[in-house]
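The material for today's practical consists of a large collection of protein records. There is nothing in a record beyond a sequence line and a structure line. As an example, a complete record with its sequence and its structure tokens follows:
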Amino acid sequence: MNKDPVGPSFRRLIGTSMAAKLVVDIGAQIFNPFLPVIASGLGLGVVDLGRVVGLRNAMGIFAPLSGALSDRLGYRVVIRVALLVMAAGSLLMAVGSALWMVVAAILLLGLGASAFVPNLQAFVSGRLPYALRARGLGMIEYSWALTGIFGLSLVGLLIAATGWRTPFYLLAAGMVLMSFVFGAMPGERHRAPPATGPRQGHWGARLVSVLVVGSNRRSTYATILAATLSFFAAMQLMITHGAWLAGRYKLDAAALGLVALVLGCFDLAASVAVSIFTDRIGKKRSVIIGITGSLVAYVAMPFLDTGVIQAVAIIAAARMCFEFNIVSHFPLLSEQVPSQRGQVMTLGTAATMLGATLSGFTGPWLYVNIGVAALAWTSAAAVAIALVVVVVMVREHAGGDVGTA
């Protein structure tokens, strides 16, 4: 292991990963504040486009298959292909006008993201010792915050100046570029052994083998369940907050971009806190702190929907607590079953994306038909269950697979 954790290999690993994920995160978050603008440009309603975007998250069900491919081909190959798939989806979104083209674009974006994110996390986790893993993964997650601080605020200005399609052209170009840049990264130092047993038998047995972990099952599945509930709760708010603020407080695209910048600052604060503190205080404890903060924010949200400043502040607080929770969750999950890290990380992505898919249907519907209170309190109920699951069932397991930077 490199004794200097911030030496050239660490900086290259984290810097390249962060740059690639920044482009992906802009593509993932662009629908959140600009859902009404994009829906209007396509001639769709907010609820209708919300449901279509929900299909993107449904593609997470294929994430475990990308984990199986990475066992055979290596994480880096899967990451590069995933970036090209997302580039194709972004380009199709940019030129699309018919509903089928929009749906196809969303499916490609979802398929690529569901392969990119967990395999990137597994690739980085395999090269970092557990004692530094929250630091490394937390730094990569700065990209999520920087998306709001710089990316979406610039997207808002770009949409106001040129229209909503331009950002998708730029995203497609950026994803192709990062696929080539990532190709210059060193490959894995070792790969998982070839699959044996059920994977070589009947297709049903092979499918089951993708879903089943060999050890520490109770804690592993509980960790995944808690993250899924947290994602469901947060995505209900993320997919709806643009329509909420635009409808109630008359914010335009530029103003929504400014809100995204504010939310990005809170996201960055959470990710920085994870990279500084989580390795010291423990991954499970950090997850509990984040979930508890989210619960308080969701419960208080309807009572603070009295002005744009108060509304943005409570949305930001909920986002910050979610970010602290979920970024702490990544290193916690990465060491539940070290020998099956790629499989476990992709299983986690598949489950959380199913939760996010459900939120694409429930969030806009709850807001349009009932209101902010129903949206906030269903999210509060979800994270309350997640909190119980983590406290009772999850254990922090530092295995012997220490990785190397």
Residues 80 and 183 are 7 Å apart (CA to CA).
